[in-house]
Fold:
Amino acid sequence: MATKYIRAYQNKFEGVYYYESQTRLFQGKPDKCFVVTFKVSGRKIWEKIGWKSQGITPQIANEKRNQFVQEIQLGSPIITAAMRKEEAFKRNRYIEEIAQIYFEKNKDRLKGYKTDLNRYEKHLKTLFGKRQVSTLTTLDIADLINSMNGKADGTIWNVVELLRRLINFGSKADLCPPLSFTINMPERNNEVVEYLTPEEVKRFFSTMRHWHNQEACRMLKLAYFTAMRRGEIFKLQDADLDFHFNLIRLRDPKGKKTTSIPMNPIAKEIIEEQIAWRDNKHPGSTYLFPGTKGGKRTDCSAIDPIKKTAQLPPEFRIFHSLRHHYAVTLANSGKYTLDMIGELLTHKSTAMTKRYGHFLPDTMQTAGEIAASLLANGTE
Structure:
């Protein structure tokens, strides 16, 4: 049923109207909502002023209308209630809109883009897609965590962190207000260190030895012998390879700051083989492992088939886990300190490397014996 507007006074207060509420009462009668009308560029505008129960009178409504008319005559822009509502909504978008803008903006520069997008689609979209940040409560975060019951601690932490990141992005971009509370991040105690057994290493290299796509195998071997991340390998260009000082420059690594790692003899041989193959297959390309038409690579479809054929554990995440295997092998040798391992892995903090501490049995045993000897002085 259309709203019926009634002129406040027939011969007074031009353009001032009201309508009566069907649900709210004031002083025993239907409450009245006062509205005014005026024209902007030939278009008739209706603007709500307020309710009688809020102290609005025809006189106040008329004064407000006169203000609008004066602003029009002076050329000032008129901001109506509808416009204010629309503007307010622009600053309080649905989370799915914020996510869409976030992923589109960061598509080519977000590390783990596909993983984060999958996390959003799988765990956040249904629960929060149609929600606004201003409506979220701590109970909603608890519901999110409960919805992932049975998932690994790391998975839960990453999903909650992604939600927090989306909200922070939206707030900084003026797409939503800041969250009204602090998200207490869940515990993350499953820093799994994945590494291969000697038998698995043999199967892995035997499979690569006979694999038809040797470029993919060279990529995996380089990861195995240098602990380079997948994205770092994909970014490698000729300018990053220093054969004089035997260094590999890593552009924009996970720690953000460009750094270099040693080019050991095995890695050097792998790189030289790949350059010879690349120059024949993709002449003119500067990428060590070029993608389509010689440009930057974004994926390698041969990785999973190699992993499956080599019968590696399903949970073994090739590039990520090969870094763990590299670190564990070095730690077990007793020839490397955690600081040295952290440098080779290009960790930006020692906390990342500490997980390999329990793979230093000989080193830790020696340190414990020295500590006992020092503490024993003067006890007898």
